[in-house]
Design brief:
This protein is 18% helix and 45% strand. The protein has helices at 28-35, 75-87, 168-179, 218-230, 282-288; strands at 2-8, 11-17, 46-51, 59-65, 70-71, 94-99, 102-108, 113-117, 121-134, 137-148, 153-159, 189-197, 200-207, 212-214, 239-243, 246-254, 263-270, 272-278. The longest helix is centred in the first third of the chain and has 13 residues, at 75-87. It is globular. The model has no long low-confidence stretch (mean pLDDT 95).
Length: 289
């Protein structure tokens, strides 16, 4: 079975093509857990399967987190799979990618740079006060809760002063507590941020399904900039967001709709093909017979 290993700003993925339908979908989750296990297999933050489209897309992207749970969508994954689709002749320079959360449009800007239109925000609950428990004590924080797409991909957007030097273990415990906050119906990806300059943001994301910090999170970046734009703290035009894996850029086309949610959120950044090869992991071949 051929696989591609790719990353977008350090957010890494294993991709396989199931356009011919030879793999039964019921094995996807177990495959994701097996293939994404670092040291024991290829290792990745997420696992993506390319399928035939069900509606009017060029193809369908099935996304799984490294723990085997289904992800509604993944921004960096969509940019990577856009390059995969282009280089494998599945579509042209502009692609229509079906996801669980809705249709995503991908556009090739150069050999490495890809831009995707993320799912529009369907929920934006700004300046929400929540109470979590860390270190045996209750702690009240203020955050923004954003969902992208339908069904919505949930994100908590949390300001942290001095984020670059914030103690790593303390931030991890805080991220885990917010991720499992009972008031978030599906849990949440937790995006810590600090504004470090005009239209310039630092971000660290604790990802649901990975249960730890990743090098980058595309939908998280879109959610952070969407919330900050709605509150007038950034312009929403080519906002730079620095993460451990690099810098991503967000542009919001519809920033001030009358009586509604902002929309047309675009994510731009690099893609990298790490490896193309044959997946021979015996734990995987045992799943599919």
């Amino acid at each position: 079975m051929q696989f591609w290993k790719m990353n977008g700003a350090g957010n890494d993925f294993v991709i396989i093509n199931n356009m011919d339908g030879n793999l039964p979908p019921e094995v996807y989750s177990d495959m994701a857990r097996t293939v994404c296990e670092r040291h024991l297999s290829v290792g990745a933050d997420g696992f993506m399967v390319v399928e035939q489209p069900r509606k009017d897309g060029d193809y369908r992207m099935c996304f799984f987190n490294s723990d085997g749970s289904i992800g509604e969508m993944c921004g960096n994954g969509a940019r990577c799979i856009g390059r995969y689709g282009h280089e494998n002749g599945l579509a042209g320079e502009t692609q229509r990618i079906e996801t669980t959360a809705g249709l995503v449009i991908s556009r090739r800007l150069s050999a490495e740079q890809y831009k995707v239109r993320l799912n529009d925000p369907t929920t934006m609950d700004l300046d929400r006060s929540i109470t979590i428990r860390t270190g045996g004590e209750d702690r009240s924080i203020t955050c923004d809760y954003v969902e992208l797409g339908d069904p919505g991909l949930p994100h908590a957007v949390v300001p942290i002063k001095g984020l670059a030097d914030y103690p790593e273990q303390e931030l991890f415990e805080l991220g885990r507590a917010i991720r499992w906050y009972s008031g978030f119906p599906k849990g949440a990806n937790v995006n810590f941020y600090e504004i470090i300059g005009p239209d310039h943001v630092l971000e660290k994301t604790f990802e649901r399904g990975v249960e730890g910090f990743t090098y980058a999170c595309g939908t998280g970046t879109g959610s952070v900039v969407a919330a900050l734009t709605a509150k007038g703290l950034v312009s929403g035009e080519h906002v730079a967001v620095d993460m451990r894996g690099g810098t991503l850029f967000i542009d919001i086309g519809n920033k001030a709709p009358a009586g509604g949610l902002l929309s047309d959120v675009f994510l731009t950044g690099p893609t990298n093909i790490v490896a193309v090869g044959e997946l021979r992991d015996q734990n995987v071949t045992g799943l599919i017979g």
